[in-house]
């Protein structure tokens, strides 16, 4: 199972799908902001704030 959180409403604006702020696959949580920083790319949106 894959869950993706986007910044915006893709039903209103399809380009919101390009603004992924969080991806959850199984029990793993991926914050695109951290991945972008690791490869030297400026994040498009800030990652969602998650607390455990």
UniProtKB/TrEMBL annotation:
Protein name from the UniProt record: Uncharacterized protein
InterPro entries: Metal-dep_hydrolase_composite
């Amino acid at each position: 199972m894959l869950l993706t959180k986007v910044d915006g409403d893709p039903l209103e604006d399809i380009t919101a799908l390009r603004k992924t702020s969080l991806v959850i696959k199984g029990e793993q949580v991926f914050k695109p902001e951290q991945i972008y920083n690791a490869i030297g790319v400026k994040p498009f949106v800030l990652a969602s704030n998650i607390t455990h």
